[in-house]
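Quick one, tokens below. Sequence please?
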């Protein structure tokens, strides 16, 4: 509504007229209503993302603090709880050590919250559509979390009339931006479902890592376009 010119005045009568004109011209596409029984679980799954980001920030802060004080490498992957024991002793300064202890305590707390959340969502997925959830995990590169994202963000593939519509919805294509016959780059890269964009990008990289077919395909792209271009193609 904000994109329509002449929108300084705003009241119910004016907006009702605008909506009626849009309907008459066929400018409002038909929308798909997400099932009410799955909506809360999808929102809970989306809530997991900022928590994972916060956990990643804590891990990054520990490594950055190590670099800040020119200390030796920790030599452990701190994403796993078993590798965090004694990490605070790596920092000789007691104040810095206290900071790391706070980070480690928060990491343990986030691990517990995420573990309980993922278990709850997994049980819900098996009730909503257990067969689809199991089939998704049979694809190389798609694990428990990616299968949950694909299941709840796609929900029903038949709601997309064409493959192109689905790919566009997933932010996997960019539209050319042209003026007077000259291409000025691309546009619309942020229109669509960002959760599906992330899920498909992760699945593609994991497929390359875990299957011989994926490794052969990446090698072919690398020979044709170079490594940097091949990674860009896979990322999009």
């Amino acid at each position: 509504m904000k994109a329509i010119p002449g929108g300084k005045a705003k009241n119910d009568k004016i907006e009702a007229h605008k909506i009626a004109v849009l309907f008459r011209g066929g400018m409002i596409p038909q929308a798909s209503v997400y099932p009410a029984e799955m909506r809360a679980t999808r929102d809970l799954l989306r809530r997991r993302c900022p928590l994972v980001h916060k956990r990643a920030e804590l891990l990054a802060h520990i490594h950055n603090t190590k670099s800040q004080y020119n200390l030796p490498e920790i030599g452990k992957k701190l994403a796993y709880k078993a590798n965090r024991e004694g990490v605070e002793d790596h920092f000789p300064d007691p104040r810095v050590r206290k900071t790391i202890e706070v980070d480690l305590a928060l990491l343990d707390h986030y691990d517990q919250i995420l573990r309980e959340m993922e278990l709850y969502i997994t049980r819900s997925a098996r009730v909503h559509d257990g067969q689809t959830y199991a089939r998704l995990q049979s694809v190389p590169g798609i694990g428990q979390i990616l299968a949950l994202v694909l299941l709840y963000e796609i929900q029903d593939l038949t709601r997309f009339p064409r493959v192109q519509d689905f790919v566009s919805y997933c932010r996997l294509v960019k539209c050319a931006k042209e003026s007077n016959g000259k291409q000025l780059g691309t546009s619309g890269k942020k229109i669509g479902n960002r959760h599906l964009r992330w899920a498909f990008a992760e699945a593609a990289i994991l497929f390359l890592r875990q299957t011989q077919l994926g490794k052969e395909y990446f090698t072919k792209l690398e020979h044709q376009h170079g490594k940097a271009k091949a990674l860009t193609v896979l990322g999009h």
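The radius of gyration is 24 Å. Residues 94-137 form the longest helix (44 residues).
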